[in-house]
Amino acid sequence: MEFEPQVIIKIAAYVGGGLCMGIGAVGAAIGEGYTAALANEAVSRNKDLSGDIFKSMLVGQAIAESASIFALVIAILLLFMDIPVPSLLKASALLGAGISMGFGAMGSGVGSGFPGGQACKGISRQPKMTGRLTTNMLIGSAVCQTPAIFALVVALILMFIDFGNVPLNPTWAALLGAGISMGLSAIGSGYGGGMAGGASCEGIARNPETVSSVTTIMLVGQAVTQTPCIFGLLVSFILMFKAFPETTALSPSMALLGAGISMGFGGLGPGIGNGMAAEGAVRWVARNVKHQSELMRTMLVGQAVSQSTAIYAMVISLVLIFVV
Amino acid sequence: MKEMGKLHQLVIHVMGYDIAFNLEVIIMTWMVMAVLIFFGFAASKKRALLPEPVQALGELFVSLLYQLTVDALDEEMAKTYGPLTIALFMFLLLSNWFGIIPHLDEPTKDLNTPLSLGIMGFFIAHYAGIKAKGLGAYLKEYCTPIFFMAPLNVIGELAKVVSISFRLFGNIMGGAIIILVVSYLTYSIFLPPFLYFFFGFFVGTIQAFVFTMLTIVYISVQVK
Q: Hey, what domains does chain A have and what are their CATH numbers?
């Protein structure tokens, strides 16, 4: 059965768009549900503040939703975009874009729900800190969106950049691998970043005097939590912009695809693990602010050890790209 | 959309190698430095007990960031590394905000700027570590938990440079790409100013702070 390039492009765009929106809708819905659940708990504790809590819940949910709005934008673009020069390469780029954004929205969507929920709970516990809790929720969720933004950038590059005259055979796998690497590795980091953000809102409500220490540790913890998805971004950039020599054999293509899969799955676990470490540090700084520097050190060393598996994955994918 | 990914480069041939300069980035970096130096003069020219607004702003930067350095390191080391922290933060903050002004670009949008700052931080941290612990104890740390983990520990240290510089680069460049694509799709109506505010001011401030904090924190991990 022979397909025209025009047909294959359409197939790739429709499948990519479907994957993108379908998977992208999973995370944000869970995150928003978590926020609403904690908002219910907060209202039952302190029903006089139901107005503030309701407002805070809606703002938190709106931020959690932004990850899946990114996915919606990419899906709509995939469905209605005009491809000037249809080629098989572009088809695989479009599929890669859908995969990148779809999976990329998952972690950040769930993660941004945590700060929102904990902020609602915090308002019922410590009404005077409402303003500060909202600020912290916004910062925490915004940083937690970073993996989704990286995924969005990779998807946009895959869709809009003209890769020109590059050999089809290994490059199609590289573009698909770039999407997989970025999308999957963003899941863990987005989820983990949200855990740290949630713990910071809880901590501020528990002990308002520790605001500045908690925010600092939260930002550092979230930043280190993003490292696996930054490795994913690095691998996908190398896959997209390195020129590969043309081959007729299938094995180089599979090596490039394998590089993307290795980094994608390899970044998933460390992201969540680093998030747990950051959550613990933030939570206990709020309870015991005197031990801030020791806690930060323990968190960083723990995160570094938990990250070593992401480094193994990166080493393997770089070997697959440059050596095999 | 066509100009995406194009750079104005000055290429010089030296001894068989091509050395490329990204002219726009260099000019933007010089402009940021010029603004900062001017700000420094303006803030410290008429020093008074009741500060003028510019002096108050300068004092705010110095006191807040110095305190952060003291918290992460200690009183003694903050005297050495405090100025680094303050200068790094102010440079990054202004760099990240620079793209809001039309026709100007963020120097941090080009990987060269964050990467060189990251490598600088890496060398400073390791120098501080060797100075504080001695070379023997410093090298011994690489052989934990067992000696044959040393290559992976070295890769782990190098990965820190990658992650710190790509975090800044990815956020700023990502913001710029998103603004470009959204402006193109909406014909620059309504949405782009909000995006400029979010990616320029909000994300730019957070990432400048994160980069600075991580640089100090890496020093403190090496030292203790």
A: 5-322 (1.20.120.610)
